[in-house]
């Protein structure tokens, strides 16, 4: 066997080994931020993420007046899950939490997110509760000087069935990361690293 053929076989073997080792390529670790939300929304209704039946929750912070990141992220989730079977659609739910409690009501936020994803739910809490939840998730939010817009973090916090945060999906990640994460975490064979 000549040297170049040996190198090619070695390279192909390495790729096959790497592919099988990585599986879906989605790493799911337990993160020390986020988790269950148990609070009273502005309507006086108790919100507890433990009560959702879906094994995967995608928690996202934003506001209905957001000009770019919020609609783009919701559109990306929609595109990532459009091809899901009915069974796969039952594996996840989007939970949108408003960072603008002065202007957003729970009803408005829910209508906003359901425009993109029909089974999504939106919440608006009072300012103190919103601040506590943002700290729990280590989410960055800063109001603009004009008070009309916000600079905010755009992560999707992926929660498992125990409502532990298992992954942060960045706004720059492709829709395939969302698809693979939901399907991986929504299955029965996911191991915690």
Automatic annotation (TrEMBL):
Domain Thioredoxin: 28-164
Record-annotated disulphide pairs: 66-70
Keyword Cytoplasm annotated: no
Molecular function via GO: metal ion binding
Signal as UniProt keyword: no
Amino acids binding Cu cation: 66, 70, 152
UniProt KW keywords: Copper, Disulfide bond, Metal-binding
InterPro entries with a match to the protein in the record: SCO1/SenC, Thioredoxin-like_sf, Thioredoxin_domain
Pfam families according to UniProt: SCO1-SenC
Domain of life: Bacteria
Family membership noted in the UniProt record: Belongs to the SCO1/2 family.
The protein's name: SCO family protein
